[in-house]
Each structure stands twice: as C-alpha cells, then as structure tokens.
Amino acid sequence: MSELTSEFLVITIGAILVNNFVLSKFLGICPFLGVSKKLDTALGMSGAVIFVMTLASLVSSLINQFLLTRDFVIGGRTMNLQFLQTLVFIVVIASLVQLVEIILQKVSAKLYESLGIFLPLITTNCAVLGCVVLNAKATGPLQSTWYGATIYGFCSAVGFALALVLFSSLREKLDLAQVPKAFEGTAISLVTAGILAMAFLGFSGLV
Amino acid sequence: MSEQESTPSIRLPDPARLVVSNSPHMRSGENISRIMFTVVAAMLPACAVGIWFFGLAAVWVLLACTVSCVVFEEGWNKLNKRPSTWKDGSAIITGILLGMNLNAGTPWWVCVIGAFLAIILAKQLFGGLGYNPFNPALVARVGLLIGLPELMTTWNPTHAMVSTLGAADAVSAATPLAMAPGKVEVLQMLIGNTKGCLGETSAIALLIGGAVLLIFKLIKWQVPVAFIGSVAVITGIMHAIDPTTYHSPVVHILSGGLLLGAFFMATDMVTSPMTRKGAIIFGLGCGIMTSVIRLWGSYPEGVSFSILFMNALTPLIDRMTVQKPFGYVAPEKGKVA
Amino acid sequence: MSDKPRKFKGGVHPSDSKALSASCAIQDAPLLDKYVVIMHQNIGAPPQLLVKKGDVVKKGQLLAKAGGFVSVPLHAPTSGTVSAIDKCPGPTGISVPAIHIDADGEDEWGSPFEPIANWQNCPAGELRQRVWDAGIVGMGGAGFPAHVKLSPPEGKEIDTLILNGAECEPYLTADHRLMLEQAEDVVLGAAILARILGLESAVIGIEENKPDAIAKLEEVAGKYHVRVQPLPVNYPQGAEKQLIYAITGREVPVGKLPMDVKCVVQNVASAVAVADAVVKGIPSIERVTTVTGRPVKTPGNWRFRIGTPIAKALELAGGITEQPAKLLLGGPMMGIAQSSLGVTVMKNTSGILLISSDEVSLYSSEPCIRCGRCVEVCPMSILPATISQAVENKRFDWAQELNVQACIECGSCSYVCPSHRPLNQHFKWAKVEIASKLRRRND
Amino acid sequence: MELKFIIISIISTGIIGVLLGVIIGVVAKAFAVEIDERIEKVEELLPGANCGGCGFAGCSAFAKAVVAEEAAPGQCPVCSGDDVANIASYLGIEAGQGEKMVALVRCSGDISNTVRSLYNGIRDCRSAVVVAGGAKGCDYGCLGFGSCANACPFGAIEMRDGLAVVHPELCVGCENCVATCPKNLIVMVPAAAEVHVYCNSPEKGAAKRQVCKTACIACRKCVKASGEEEHMLVDGFLVKTNYENPPSADLVEASACPTTALRVAGKHAANEYQGVSK
Questions:
Q1: Which of B153, B282, B298, B320 to mutate to test binding with chain A, by most A CBs within 10 Å of its CB?
Q2: Where exactly are the structural domains of chain A?
Q3: CATH number, span C1-28+109-360
Q4: Omega before residue C236 within 30° of 0, cis
Q5: Complex confidence, ipTM
C-alpha cells in the first residue's frame, strides 16, 4: 500500500470507528446527549453536523493553508497569522451553523423545531472545532492538504453520526424500559454511552 | 323436570369466583424460568469439561461468579423493594456465562467485580430482565478486559498440558490464536485441552450445548450459522491469500470464544433481534467484526466486542426488519387513512 | 386449485381436549319454562322490536325485524308470553336489552314462512331473502349476518364458496358433531349457498383431526359437487383469512374482506341453518353448542334454543365437579370470559366452556424477554412483542405503524408467551384507541 | 512594524468576516421565514403545561391562535385571571374569560361500595373496558384503574380504593380527563357548585342497589328538601344538580340522602362519606 492509501484508511476508518469523536475522543457530548431522544431528530442532527463539519473543514483548511500559515516578512521579521487560527475557525463554524439554521428553518420547520437549541449549539460543538484544529495540526501528507482535511472532516462527522444514530436507537428502546427513578434520563443514557464506548474500544489497533 | 328450580345436587359455578380476562384462556405452559434453566443445562457440558481440564480453580470461579450474580440481583431487589427475581434463572445464566468467560485462575474479587458490572450496571440499572440493551455477561467481560487486561489475558494451562509439557512450558504456552499458523493441534481444541477461558476451550461440549438449545428452540439457528459462517468465509479467504500469517478458518472457529459467543451470547434473546431476517444480519455483523478484530485489531479476541457492538445495533436492526403482515398492502400515497 | 392445502405461516398447536365431548352425540335440550333472547345478536345494527310485554308469541314468530341491511330479524324460540323487555347480562359483561319469554310448554309452531321445496329452481334472490328472513348469522363466533356475505356488491365477482368446518378452537366439538350427524344437511346447505352465489360447487375445509366427519361428508358430498378439503391441524386454521389462504392460496389484504379475493366463507352450522330455513322453513331459533371443560360433570353437545340461560345449560351437563376459574362463551383461544351465569345462548355461541384453575391462563406484566416466539407463531406476521411494548407505553401511533390493525386476535401470541403478557388485550386496546382517534379526526 | 502586523491581522480577519456575513445575508434573504414575535411573547405568558385544555395542540399552538385572533386568551383554563388579562392587554384584545369549571367524576362506587368481578389483565380503564366491560358490577361506574388520573397534568385526580376522586381545588378545568374516561363519567361543572350527585347509572333503583351501596335511587328526598327552588332535577332514575341554579352545601345535611350519593365536593374529596347497606 502506498503511503497515501494507508493514510486514507487511517483517516477514514480511524475517524469513523477507532478514534470516534464521541465514543473515544469524547468530543461533542452535548448534542450527543441532547438530541438523541428520537431517531428522527438524531438523523436530522447528523445531517446538520455532517454538513457543518465537512464544510468547516474545507473552508478553514483553505483559509489556514492559503492565509494563516503563509509567512510574510514585515520589517525583516518573518511572521504568520497562525495565532488567529482559533478565532477564524470559530467565525467560520459560526457562520456555517447560521447558514444551516436559516436554510433548515425554511426547508423543514419541523426538524428545526425538534433540534431546538442544539442546532445553534453546533457552533460550540467541540467536535467541529476539534476536527478543524486537528486538521490544522495534521502532519500527514494527505490530511494536511485541503482535500485530505475535508475527507477527515466528513469521516469524523460520519463517525459522530454513527454514534448518535446508534445511541438514539438505544435510547428509544430505553424509553420503553422500567429504569429505576434515580437513573432515569441522562443518568442511564451516560451508562449506555459508556457501554457503547466499551464496544467501540474493540476497534482499537485496527489502523 | 325443567320446570323445577335446579335441584341442589347439581352444583353450578360460583359467579363471584369467576375470573374475567381477555382471550386466550389457555397457555402453552412455557415460562421464563423453564427457558432459563434449559439454557443453564445446555451450558453444563462446557462447564464440566472446563472443570475436568482446569480442576478446582474452575469450580471456584464458576461458583464465585454465579453466587455473586445472584447475591447482587437479590440485593438490588431488596434495596429497591422489588419482588425477588433470582428464581427466573437469568442471574444464574449470567453468572455461569461470566465464569465461562474467565480464566480458571481468576481471583475471587475479579469475579465479584464482574458480577457487579453484569448484574447492576448492565442489567438492573436498565430495569432488569428484558430491558437491558447489552448482554450483561459480555459487559462484565469487556469491562474487565479493559480494566484488568493483564489478568484477563493470562490463562491457566490445563492439567493435561502440565503433565505433557511440564509446568514451566505449560504456563508459557500460547493460546491457539497466538501461536504461529499451522502449529495448532485441532484435536486438542476439539476436546478442550488448550489454553483459554474455562468455558470456551472445548468445542465439542459447546456444540452439544448449542444442539440442546437448537432442539428446544431456545435460540434462532440463524445467529450461530451466520456468525460462524461469516467468520469461516472471511478467515478462509485471508488464509487462502496468505497461509503463513493467517490461521485456517478451522482454527478460528474452534479457538477463543467463538463457539461460546455464537451459541450462548450472541443468541441472548433480550439483546438480539427478534425476526429471522434480523437474526441473520446480527450474526453476519458479529462474524464480520470478529474476523476484522482478530485479523487486524490489537485485541487477540474480537467475539465479545463484536457481540457487544451488535447489541447496540439491535434496535436499529429491529427497526429495519419489521416484517410485512399477511395480506399487506402498501398504503396509497396521498390517501389519508 | 390444488388439492393440497397450503400451510399458512405461524400458528400454534394447543392440546385440543376435544375428546371430552367429541364422541357425545347431539342431544335435544328439553324445553325450559323461561327463555331470555338477547336482542342484539349480530354484528351490525340491532334489530327493531316488534313485540311488547304481555304479547303471546308462537314458536318461530318474529320478535324483532332487521334494523337495516347489516342486521337480522329475531324469532321466538318457543311459544309463550313475553314477560318482560328488560336488561340481562350480556356476553361482553355489559347488561343488554333482552326479550324475556315465559314458555307455555306447548311449543306451538307459528313459522313466518313456508318451506321452499324446489329450491333448485328457486331464484337466487328469493333464497337470499330467505336466509335474511330466517335471521341467520355466522354461527362460528363473530355473528356476521349471513345474507350480507351472500350479496356481493356490483362488480365483485365470487368464484369460491368455502364452508368453514375447521373448528380449530380446542375443546369445541359442536361443528364436528354437526358435520358427522347432519352431513347431508351440511352439503345441502352448501349447495343452496352456492346457488345463491351462482356457483356450481363449494369447498368444505375441515381439520384433519376429524377423520370420521371427513369420511362421512365425502360420502355424501358428491351429490352436489361439494369438495371436502382436509386441512392440517394448526390453530387458527379456522380464521377466515387463514382458511382462504389454505384452500385457495389467496391473501386477503389487510382491512379487506374475503369478497375482495372472490371468496365467501360460511360456517358449517350456518349452512345447516340455511338448509333448515329453505327446505324446512325453520328460522334460526336453535343451535348446537358444546358444553365442556374439565370441571363439567358430563360434557356433551346439545341443541339449545336461542335464549337458553347458561345456568340451565350447565345443569343439563350435570353441573360441575369443582369450581372453575373461568366461564367462557366460545373456545379457550377466542372465547369471552363471563362473570355471570345469567347470559343466554346466542346464535353465535359455539361453546360453553369451563376452565379449571390448573389450566387457566392468567396474565402478569412480566417484562418481555424478546424471545420472539410470538413473532414466530403470529399467523398475520406482525410483531406482537414490539406492538405490546408500544401499547404498554401508550404509543398507539407506533402500534399503528407496526400494523396492529392486521391482528385477528387469535391469541396465538399470548398462548406461547413465556412472560405471560396480555398481548391480545394490548392489541384490542390499541385497535380501540386507533379507531377512536380516527373518529375524532373525522368529526 | 508591529502596527503593520496588527493591521494585517485585523484586515484579514475583517475580510473573512465580511465575506461570511455577505453570504449569510444573501442566504437569509433567499430562505427568509416570517415570524410574528408576538406569538413568542404570548407563549411566555401561558402556563406551558401543554395540557390541551384550550382545544389546541399545546401552548404554542394556542398562542398562535390567540395572536391570529382565532381564540380568546380566556379559553386557556389554566391561566389565572391576571395572566389572561396580561395577554389580552398585551395584544389589545378582549379576554373572553368564562366561568371557572372543574371536573366531576359522577361515581362514588369505590371497592367497599360496589360489586366487582375478578379481573385479570391490564390495569388501565381504557383497556379494561374492552374485556367484560371492565368487570365492575355497575356498567356505568368508575372502573378505578386511573386512566383519568394518569391523564391529569395537574395531579388533581386521586385514585382511592378503586375510585377516581377529583380534588376541586387542584383542578384547573383542562378537560383532559373527560375524553379519557371510557365510561364517560367525567363532566365539567361550575366550580361554584358544591353539591353533586355522585352516580351516573340510568338503571332502576333496585338494580342499582344490587351492585352499589352509594347509587342514587331517585328517592327525591333532596328534590323535596330544596323545595320550590329547583336546585335538583330528576332525570329518569337519576337526580342531577341543576347547575344553572346550584344548591348550597346545607342541602346534603337537610335531605339526608339515604345512600350518600348526594355529596359535597370538598367532603367527598376528603373521604368523609361511606356507602349505606340496604
């Protein structure tokens, strides 16, 4: 296998299964718990996150590559704007979320309502920022290109979606269970998420 | 005569003691504990072989697991003022299964921790029997494997191995899966004279148990067949490509917890899909994931992880495989029912 | 049409316990001094009362006329005086209006119509009218007016008439004895029904556990091009949709009627009633009913007048030897539990069954262990376990998504459930809720 | 030099911001959705119990209807008078408030008073009623499995000895229980009326007494005790309170109802009555 193909595998399988954003990096727990009560909303959220994360990866890696990491010389000192990374990334993500929100409200008011506060909260979803930052820090020959970063963003989002959909179907089942009062709701969800994370640990070492 | 009032010699039912309920008014006589204890019986051959090869140590592990499972179950019931449930046999099954998934020399406190994970964390927190989305014994095994990897991946040699190889060699001997391909003695694996968890070594005993389950229709045949079949196919292909790195499918099937998992854990009714179609998907998923983890993953054994992962997928599979009713007609679009 | 019956998916094999009464010949029940005829005995509109308190009626006289097309008239079971129009315990546990008749012991005949001797040449419409006038309903259990099934709407072609002699319910032997003892009448009724539908032939479906009845029917069937079709023993073989599938291989679509697959199904007892009404001019005022169960002293099959109180029927059977846990109208799988002995024999009462406390099925709300047995046995291929959990959590919309309406309430799922869950009641409940939601929306 | 660097940072960040802003602006125009902010404000003023007592799907649907002037704020049975007035004044419309109504379960047949058969099945009225009519001796009485109590979002219905008892002071009149009762036992009555007949059986007195100790046998003692005032109305074999002209609580004492079917709501809620054997 060439280096690129093997890195491609690392990026895809790694992001979806092995280093799953939710179940192994524990990023994006807020929407993971918040919008996983129903499979339908979870699917909607997954779509939104895939959209935002892929685009955010693309846009920010472009900005990062062609603007922020470009060295320039001012008064004999070589400098770059890397220190602006976090700021710019957040601006990009926030605008993308805003876009999704505006479009969704028009296209599917029902989904918009059921996602509620968690839609604007994608902005602060650490999974998205984490993904973008990981892209900016990547050293691999593939991931450090803008298309590699986009693939990584997409796969991470798919991993997030996978975890979210699995978890929401489990929670729909938990809805029917007679969970002891003290453990109802978030408590039992966290227990379930923990066991789910244990199951995902089986993938470790695959890539 | 008919004109007279009923003669006192004719006794009629007392209406006040008649129960009203919905039909049907007969039942097949099947109940949960009967099912559960049949499963226990089906596990006994494998346990017996484990005890034969590993000796008293195996007895202690099985006992410690079963007793602590029952104690945790009853303790929880008492604590929550729920009716006693150990008699339905599910806690006993969990205990024995957990024991079978442990090394014969496992310390007692590990058994107790496992029982806690299984009964309290994986079962009672979700509302008890029937509501747990994950197989309790598997949660315990995987939990212990992650938490105590050293303890969970060293195995006692069998008595027979000690006598043939000598104590030192026997202790350092590898499990079949960890050996170099082509050096595995298939016959020893069939009878169970290899290293491994105490209940998973003997293929023959497990097959007998599986046959019992199938005969009493306690499991769906689709699950073990799809599970074992897909492992055979995938490992077979890899073996054909490169026999020096990859074991033959026979070794894969007979080694590790595959048979135990395929017959006793993947088939757990509560955590596997209900329809036949779902069962096939479930078995295939288990098989594929087990093969992938065994061939390329960092853990030597993928059965527990794969079943646990498929447990998580079960609600989705159930949703996808809702069967069409007899005489089903697709609802016309646009027509409001 | 092949001679080999198809096997429908699912089904259960409860121990049939038919031996208790299968060898007991049908006896005519003696005349009582009092009958209570429940007004509304059919599915559809209740009939309209024609008599009042104090009226003297003759046996066979009209008590009430049909209250619409899907409704049948009611006739006096014997001669006597109408002592009251009052409530009496109904089969569903709610008191229902009934006509109380004090018999005069004369049993004087006053038939509303004459026999049609030459029925082969009688127009189909007239025969159909006779079936209606005689007040014949589906005597297998549902009580659906027979003439309605015989009147396919314009454009609906019928090519198969099936007589239901499956009697798949355990314990019940009334149809079995009827087919054995009155095979000629069964076949005659089949021929008349076929003529009404403009068909040449008819099929009688019988479960294989009644070889004597099959042999007897085959002996006489040739006379009218009636075919006897033995069916494998599998509950619910006698359910309309399953029976049609077994015999013709056609699936009745959910929410549709046998008519939609060109079939008409009638119970064998209804066929005998048709034969009686046409050839002998006797309206539907009696029926063969099995009185049975372990607690019954001498189980057997009797020909009761409609309106016979259950207490009297049980007395005929010698009373009980032990207190039963349940008293049922109908068989153990689909029968209705009673809490009163005041209910009377109706046109669709195929059995009076006492269930002893050691064989009774009581329900508990143990959790579902998802064993999937209910899914295996469901003859309608729905998911009883999932629907039941949905209903338990009042998720009726979900139950509807899972096609709970397809359920025929045969009870196979509850029969096999190791958790003893009240599955069947869940489905009934869901259907009621879904129907009422639909009504609210249409309002 | 340093300044230049700062300016470059600011400008580049600014350009990115402006670009994104323009994109958002364009998209927002293209996908604009109109929202009436008054709806949100009205919804805030509503109780948010989503009980559906107003006849709409929930508080937000009701808010929409109120703003569209398809419903009057007073239709919300839960809102206090002040809340209704607030909403009305905010929107500048009529409050349209009606009389306060509470639910009444027209049955007093608890376990000790009414004959029941042994029922084995789902513990829910709506489900029990499909089996043997609920297995209660009286075909019209409360089944006692508490479907109404479960439907009440305000905990105003107590299940006591197999009988649903409304606590009038907790009841807000949302009518959720009314549709739930499979026996149609629950009616809405003015909260001002205190005396009710806790029986709903149209059967003859003798038939009722066979199955229930607290049935109204239409003896008319209460009708007579209320004199010419027409506080109580006779309807077949049943007496009903005339809610147009309700009697005072003294009537119960004065009429000495022989079966205690006539009760004062508050005392009934406090469990101060017992049935009377024949």
A1: B298
A2: 10-201
A3: 3.40.50.11540
A4: yes
A5: 0.85
